[in-house]
Design a protein that fits this description.
463 residues, TIM Barrel, eight-stranded parallel β-barrel, two-stranded parallel ribbon, 14 helices, globular
Length: 463
């Protein structure tokens, strides 16, 4: 009873734009991420300008992937979540023919993973898209991006159909509400009308690609991916309970459409009351209704609280929330709430009755090397141990959980702040915020801890 299911998938999760580097190598085009050298835009920025940044090299996974995959295998991974950089396949996004050099690169990645019996788990769009689509089409504001994304997906499905059997469409699709440039290629001052119109196009594209995956790779599974931002009522005041319901509906909307195939009533009401009018083609809702993802995946880092009193809210890293007096915070101000993961797993399983997959969870911290050159990251071990214990509790509750891929099994560049000092990895990378460092890899204390967790299928966790 102390182990996870026998077919449980253990591993880690990375994103192309945060690990690969080689931003202009082998005809790769510029992505929206390449235009954000300092992390996501502030709410008041109205334009972006390309300057060099740490992501240009990142941790050079592009060239060092054999070494890194070997380390993942040493930990016992049987699954690695990674993303394909859209701009390596279609540099400008609207080409008729793909870039063979980009396709060949991911062939090598998947072959290397296969050689180590690690299953690739691929995200099609992880916080990046061709910047040329923003310049020439206004990003997902244009319906044309539905066709461009479908072409890209079809290309990689056909190319890798014998190598990749687990897919995701968009990473944390609900993040577009908080970071529109990152999510849908709109400027950060875009209004809700524009953002939700772009989101509609993305949801139509999601449905088309889900159906396409089922056609091209019948034995594959394709899921969606949510930022699991569960909110508790700040008090038992019914007004706070309703406030929490509204906050949760903002992100559950995406899961509802991608799973149930229709716009929920609460969202239709919100559109009416906010005078938001979504332009649709006659068959858009038919397309959305025709596709349901095979499983729900999500990230979970922190919970939040919601209050009817706007004065209670404080500014967060990306998402504003009401502080919870019962929880401690990480060095970056994120509330640490392992039991919230069990609550979220039960909540999502009750709502959707589909398999779930925790595809991101981890602790960003400023790791320090001791006098022996070691990194004793017990705080990371404690964080992950406590979350995995609660994930196992959810399994005992009856939740169907496919797997767990920790965020950043190797140190990588932070998406929100473009820092290296916000480290998540079991593997230390000698690179720093100023770009200096040897890029040498080194195992942290948590490396052997996670190795033991995987080896025992969770039995070694401290309960």
């Amino acid at each position: 009873m102390n182990t996870f299911p026998s077919d449980f998938l253990w591993g880690g999760a990375i994103a192309a734009n945060q690990v690969e580097g080689a931003f202009d190598y082998d005809k790769k085009g510029l992505s929206t991420s390449d235009m954000l050298p300092n992390g996501i835009l502030s709410p008041h920025q109205t334009r972006v300008e390309r300057t060099s940044g740490i992501k240009d090299v990142a941790i050079d996974f592009y060239h060092r992937y054999p070494e890194d995959i070997q380390l993942f295998k040493e930990m016992g991974f049987n699954c690695l979540r990674l993303s394909i950089a859209w701009t390596r396949i279609y540099p400008n996004g609207d080409e008729e023919e793909p870039n063979e050099a980009g396709l060949a690169y991911y062939d090598k990645i998947f072959d290397e993973l296969a050689a180590h019996n690690i299953q690739p788990f691929v995200t099609l769009s992880h916080y990046e898209m061709p910047y040329a689509l923003v310049e020439n089409y206004d990003g997902w504001a244009s319906r044309k991006l539905i066709g461009f994304f479908e072409r890209y997906a079809n290309t990689v499905f056909e190319r890798y159909k014998n190598k990749v059997k687990l897919w995701l469409t968009f990473n944390e699709i609900n993040m577009s509400l908080h970071a529109p440039f990152t999510g849908v290629g709109l400027q950060e001052d875009a209004n809700e009308q524009a953002i939700y119109q772009a989101i509609h196009h993305q949801l139509v594209a999601n449905a088309k690609v889900v159906n396409l995956c089922h056609q091209v790779i019948p034995d594959a599974k394709i899921g969606n991916m949510l930022l699991g931002a569960i909110n508790y009522p700040y008090t038992c005041n019914p007004d706070d309970v309703i406030a929490a319901m509204h906050e949760n509906n903002k992100w559950l909307f995406f899961g509802d459409v991608q799973t149930r195939g229709q716009y929920p009533g609460y969202m239709k009401r919100y559109f009416r009351e906010q005078n938001i009018h979504i332009e649709m083609k006659d068959d858009d809702l038919v397309v959305i209704a025709s596709a349901s993802v095979d499983f729900i995946s999500f990230s979970y880092y922190a919970s939040g609280c919601a209050s009817a009193d706007p004065k209670q809210k404080e500014v967060g890293n990306i998402v504003d929330s009401v502080p919870n007096p019962y929880l401690e915070k990480s060095q970056w101000g994120w509330l640490i709430d392992p039991k919230g993961l069990r609550i979220l797993l039960n909540f999502l399983h009750d709502r959707y009755q589909k398999p779930l997959f925790i595809v991101e969870n981890g602790l960003g911290a400023r790791d320090q090397t001791n006098s022996n050159g070691e990194i004793q990251d017990d705080y990371r071990i404690d964080y992950l141990n406590d979350h995995l214990v609660q994930a196992h509790e959810a399994v005992l509750d009856g939740v169907e959980l496919m797997g767990f891929t920790s965020w950043g099994p190797i140190d990588l560049v932070s998406n929100s702040t473009a820092e290296m000092s916000k480290r998540y990895g079991f593997i230390y990378v000698d690179r720093h915020d100023d770009g200096n460092g040897t890029l040498q890899r080194k195992r942290k204390k948590s490396f052997k801890w996670y190795q033991q967790v995987i080896c025992t299928n969770g039995a070694s966790l401290k309960r």
